[in-house]
Design a protein that fits this description.
233 residues; two-stranded antiparallel sheet; 30% strand
């Protein structure tokens, strides 16, 4: 351990209740990083997702693991670390969102289609009807004052005293008109959202996505450099 200042790895070992720095490939080393990270970043600060929070904290630790903190006490260092993250993270969260939007490896297609159509229907009905009827009549009025032939003679128009033939031809015509208008409309609308994976090299998209996210992580790590002692060569 450093006798004048405190290294980040010393703080992590203390959080893991170790009185020594474990070897890199030992189980204690992995446990120290895990326990130390949780305790070191136990304060609240803005972050995009829990997954990115864990990855960023691990990258910060790996980058500054053997660097000496630039504060007199661990408590003061953690206070300054929280203040810095609260100050810079809102800006970097937007960059994380852009990375998610631009390089999501499993989302190669994102198309939104909206369709609206209104059809107006108007119909007119005009009709005219004409009805014609003709009544024809042809009748005889027969009279006989002699008994010859009896009633049969009258029916047969025989032995008549007088006879009148009445004829008529009556024609009537009826005309009617029907008119009307009907109106209506038909509305067709739908929304279609197509998104997801559709061809392309997934491995290449994953590589670009990771590079973009790691670039954001590195920018944050650089902003934290002022919290550690300056290295002179």
């Amino acid at each position: 351990m450093s006798f004048v200042t405190t290294r980040l790895i010393d703080i992590l070992a203390s959080y893991a209740e170790l009185d020594f720095i474990p070897d890199f490939d030992s189980p204690e080393y992995s446990q120290m990083l895990h326990t130390g990270r949780i305790k070191l970043f136990s304060f609240a600060y803005p972050m995009f997702t829990a997954e990115q929070k864990e990855r960023l904290e691990k990258n910060i630790i790996q980058h500054y693991l053997t660097r000496e903190i630039g504060s007199e006490t661990v408590g003061l260092f953690r206070q300054r670390l929280q203040a810095k993250l609260c100050e810079i993270m809102p800006e970097f969260i937007q960059l994380y969102k852009l990375a998610e939007m631009d390089y999501n490896p499993l989302n190669t297609v994102d198309i939104l289609e909206e369709f609206d159509r209104t059809t107006e229907n108007t119909s007119e009905n005009n009709s005219t009807s004409t009805a014609e009827s003709t009544v024809k009549t042809d009748e005889w009025v027969a009279y006989s004052d002699t008994p010859q032939g009896g009633l049969s003679g009258v029916k047969n128009l025989a032995y008549l005293t007088s006879a009148t033939n009445n004829t008529a031809d009556n024609t009537s015509e009826t005309t009617g008109e029907i008119s009307g208008t009907s109106e209506g409309s038909t509305v067709d609308s739908y929304t279609k959202h197509t998104h997801g994976y559709s061809g392309g090299d997934v491995s290449e998209r994953v590589r670009k996505y990771r590079e973009n996210v790691l670039n954001v992580d590195n920018m944050i790590i650089d902003k934290l450099n002022e919290l550690f002692m300056t290295i002179y060569f």
